[in-house]
Amino acid sequence: MKYLIHTDLKLKYGSIPRLTDAMETMVPFLGAQGWTLIGAYHAIVGSFNQVTHFWEVEDLNCIPAALAAAQSTPGVMEIVERFADYVVEENLQLVTRMPYSP
Question: How far apart are CA 16 and CA 51, in angstroms?
C-alpha cells in the first residue's frame, strides 16, 4: 500500500526563495530515504506564504528513518535547523487515497 505524506508549511512573508533553496537539497535527500515528491505548490491567490507538499512512501518506516538519517548527514541537519528562521508553522498528515481518487 502506498501512503501520502501531506505537509502544509506557513512561512514568514518573502521566504519562499529560502525554502526553494533548501528543498533543492532536501528533495534528493528524502528521495534516497524512500520519499517521492508527488507535488509542491504555493498559493497565487489567498495565503501567499503557504506551501503544500505531497510525498509518497511505500513503507511507513521511511518516516522515522529519514529523520534519523537527517541527524547524521552532513549539511542536512543544518538546513532543517534553519527552517526555524522562516517556517512559522508545519502541519504533517499521513493520508491515503480515497477509492475515487485517480
Answer: 8
